[in-house]
Amino acid sequence: MTARTLSPSELARDIRRQTLTTIHRAKASHVGSCLSMVDILAVLYARVLHFRPEQPDWPERDRVIVSKGHAAAALYATLALVGFFPESWLSTYCQDGSRLGGHVSYGVPGVEAATGALGHGLSIATGLSLALKRDNSHARSFVILSDGECDEGATWEAALFASHHRLDNLIAIVDYNKIQSFGRVEDVMALEPFADKWRAFGWHAQEVDGHDHASLLGVFEALAVGSQKPTVIIAHTIKGKGVPFMEDDNLWHYKPPNDEQLTLALRFLDHLEKPHA
Amino acid sequence: MRNAFVKTLLTLAQHHPNLWLMTGDLGFGVLEPFAERYPDRYINAGVAEQNMLGVAAGLALANPQNQIFTYSIGNFGTLRCLEQIRNDVCYHNLNIKIVAVGGGLAYGSHGYTHHAVEELAILRTLPSMTVMAPGDPLETDWAVRQLALISGPAYLRLGKAGEPQIHAQPIDPTHPLSEPFVLPSSHQGRLDVMLLSTGGMLEVAVSAADRLALQGVFAQVVSVPLLKPFPAQAIRSLISNTKTQVIVTLEEHVPEGGLHSVVCQTLASSPNHPPVVAAALMPEVVGKIGSQAYLRSLSGLSPEAVAASVFQQLAMCVKG
Lengths: 277, 320
Hints:
In chain A, helix 5 (153-164) links the parallel strand 2 (141-146) and strand 3. Chain A is built from nine helices and seven strands; from the N terminus they run ααβααβαβββααβαβα. By secondary structure, chain A is α/β, with parallel strands linked by helices. Chain B is an alpha/beta fold. In chain B, 37% of the residues lie in helices and 16% in strands. Chain B has a seven-stranded mixed β-sheet with strand order 2-1-3-4-6-5-10, sandwiched between helices. Chain B has a five-stranded mixed β-sheet with strand order 7-9-8-11-12, sandwiched between helices. Chains A and B meet through helix 4 and helix 5 of A and helix 3 and helix 4 of B.
């Protein structure tokens, strides 16, 4: 499997490059939301998940739902880099007739479920976990949530359900970059005390630096099936992470990099790449 | 109808180990036999319909053998979670059957929140969705069996309990989904009006036909439980073969987007088709409280009112 030969830091670097290039080419949006999630994807796909790119429907695969569907470009880049489909497909992102829509689209190898309307993914992942348990499968389901979609009531309906059914094969990761559409999460709709909310819903909650590969890996490796509780990993992240002029600025939720900005961004990635793990 | 539904579902579940039933905490006194017999495939999702549909999607995605029936009252299991139905169920073309009890005005005295009178139109617009409203408990049994054979999404609108049995005998489970039910009729050759009915309005259609017969007007009642994909060819053939003067559509639903709309759409390109008169809910019924019969009468959906409407139309045809 291609991904196993890449370290998380190498995969993260390549995902960032492909994501920036893809979004620039398509003049698309949500680059900041993609970049905050990249290290989570890189650790998952390089070290944690069980999957077979040549057999996307392998029954024993771990399931991944990217519930923040607007970060599709980063997911597509990851799936291409680990071998689910050719990297050349990325050049079709958002183009007429492409399989790769601006939000995570159905029918793409490696995509378990389409997302884009926020607040759907945790329920779907919960159903996956429940079915996997009933089938006595060892597969787990992972779901990446945005902080903004934790405003959605359906997310908390699913949180109640998952703990009630003791779904310890369900792992939610919140990409907590602390910026949503209009600005700071704490100004728009405060989530704190965030981890305590999940704990009150019956979840095992852990906080981690969402860009520190070793820490992320440590949390993932410590996941214990048999704990009778679903797990949420609150990953503290920075929107636009990896490109200094994009970091922590919600303008990059909307605008694509122009030619100069892309060149500059890629140069930053070249200089900044220092292996984390 | 809900008792027929559960009875048939229990029968199907015996032979279908991946058939699940989820409820949004409704069906007390109805669903227990399933819950007791198949506890591993029965999920009470609590009062959380959005999550119920999302979880159902996850169950269906996890194992292609899984078939999930979700159960709730009219609007709760359909409109409350419409986006989950659209995105998670229909976009992914999943094997999920959405069952609503209290279709139409069955819960009349409970008030407008419990009147499911727009959902047929709304769900008909969704991709891959099959939409059914059986006319009596026997059609319900047949419909559940038919839906279980379909691998995609479907919506099943039911009444509540105690609806009269209209068909004289059980329906052959192999009766094709695309074939409406032409009820036995006393007319001999001449046909004045065709009453196309969907869902629980079937008893009204039959009663109206009886009233008309007493006055020498011959009506053919046709039950049309399948609204999508609409059996257009069968309906066109019926109409052209019987040479009816007037068609009346009967539905416990707003006139937009339900049976009347789809019949008009079906006939629009046919030259010289008979007039299609709607017997559907009028805006006046919004917010009104009362029994199903009372609310029907406010909208001209009583057997008497339907019969009177037919007389009026026939008179216009004669004048015309």
